[in-house]
Amino acid sequence: MFKLPLISCITLLVAAPYCMAQLPAEQPEHPLPSLSQPREGAAYNRLLLGTLGPVVVGSVMIGMENDALAVAGLFVMATGLAAGPSWGQYYAGSPWQANIGLAGRTIGVGSLLYGLHLALDDSGCTDDCHWNDGRYFVKGGYAMLIGGLLYGLIDTHFAVHRAAQKSAKEKPFAEGIQLAPILARNAEGDTRVGGQAWMHF
Prior knowledge:
Strand 1 and strand 2 (191-200) form a beta hairpin. Strands 1-2 form a two-stranded antiparallel sheet. The two termini are 38 Å apart. It has a domain at 37-172. Mean pLDDT is 76; it is low at 1-33. Helix content is 66%, strand content 10%. It is mainly alpha-helical and 201 residues long.
């Protein structure tokens, strides 16, 4: 009486390794998105938060008519402009690209602040001699800062795609198929043997 269920169970158990061996080893061209992968919207949210947040806070500190707070607010703004655009790249798993942008913007902000310091320092100077000395630092620092900001904005998009491609190479589309025999009764009350299969991604 139990020969048919026993034979079906043995058949399913024997066929399971074969089914798993037939799974494709390569990732399909358009795999299903994973919730664990970095998302482009989240990357740009971090970029904007890390950049605009310190700029707003620093601007408020500068406007409080306190010299100490003004200096601190200036450094807060400089930190946000230098480090904030790299937040999206760090989130997307591209630390080298993020560090390159961070280094360039840090040099640009430092050069810009140094040039402004020379321009505003009027000790022992009659005309605009300090501005003549500092304008090259101001122009060079401004160019590096703008270039670094654009680099962070553009490469954040590619950082998310690099993370998706890396995840696609490391993780196969289907990790395995599991099969299990089941017993079910039909409308006539007869016991039938069947199978259940599910896939893990």
